[in-house]
Amino acid sequence: MVQVPRSNPRRRPRRGRYPARYSAAALLRRGKAPWPPIWRSTELRDTYDIVVVGGGVHGLATAYYLASNWGITNVAVLDKGYLGGGGSGRNTAIVRSNYLTPDGVAFYDRSVRLYERLAVDLNLNVMFSRRGHLTLAHSDGALRTMRWRAEVNKHQGVDSEVIGPAEIKRLVPALDVSEAPRHPILGALHHPPGGIIRHDAVVWGYARAAAALGVEMHQNTEVLDIDVAGGSGPDGKGPGGQVTGVRTSRGEVSAPVVVNCTAGWASLIAAMAGLRLPISTHPLQAAVTEPVKMFLPAVVVSGSLHVYVSQTDRGELVFGAAVDPLATYDTGGSLAFAEELAGHVLQLMPGLGRMRLLRQWSGLCDMTPDYSPIIGATDVAGFFCDVGWGTYGFKAAPVAGEQLAACIASGETPDLIEPFALNRFAEGRLVGEKGAAAVGH
Ligand code: PYC
User: 392 CA distance to ligand 1 centroid (A)?
Assistant: First the structure.
């Protein structure tokens, strides 16, 4: 077990009690005074108990649960850019737990439950909208997979069932459930607990709550290398070694625990500790339309047509698709993506022909061979991973942060993350979730 000093657990405020309250009364009380910053900027110190690499929602959630659940507050979250500037600010903010494997369902179910009460825990309106999630089936094969998922979900106590075209039409009148389209809708997996959430608010909420508990956030602080002593690799890093700290663009920091919570750069950060991860990195593009009156009351996904769509509270439609086929770090978008996406959406909802796309963007996805994450301790003592989140990382942040914090603090691997250990690839214990990925990749 890594010895992590517990730094002053008595300093922790009661859950849900954070200094700046965002209420109408607070607004009136403050008058013209500026809002206080939601986290403090401090000097980077040269030693911490724990360094978290990556200031996205996973890194921030891990830091928050280390502080709130375990009283470990001598923690620095480092990000080479700004908090939430990577995948956390680029995803389509879908929350669901209708996975295929029992391990996946139990894990994501815990995340949905944490999301449901997150606004109260963080005292910030994260705008969770539980509106139901429909995964459409356009073939007998897809329908079989939906039935399989529904059964696994029910066994785990998760609300999912297969419904037919008439019920789909009742839930989402804009969908064309006739036999006219090239890929008619034969049925769907309906998952009422699914929904969307405001991703920026989740990032800010975790950052503010962690900072109130004493965690430091350091933006524009790039990790350039990781120091490991006594490893079995040619450079003294790798399995058998012990992490001793990180070298950053702002100086060296010593720490017995370093947590890799990056997305897009997970394999590069792991390589700094001497570990190889079975990850390839692909861009994922998304797009948003002009805002219109609410007409899409559920999240709609079509695996075969490679599209998912939801309508935000502002009225925009947010679309995503499969990851780009070639592994690259290039996040430039493409016209081909927008054209293909539009064609597929129009097969589902022909009435949207005159709607305008406003903008599109990309993020980076670290894909593992089994479409499940890599989370927990590694063979380098003190080096933990919370990576390999493919296109499903945002929805997992609360449970990943909670469970990884427990793993680091207690030295025990919690049951919920045990199936997702890195050594499953060497031991042939894959957790195949491709059938539950939002779209075919
Ligand atoms: O897995 O639900 C999902 C998802 C949504 C967008 C990308 N992946």
Answer: 5
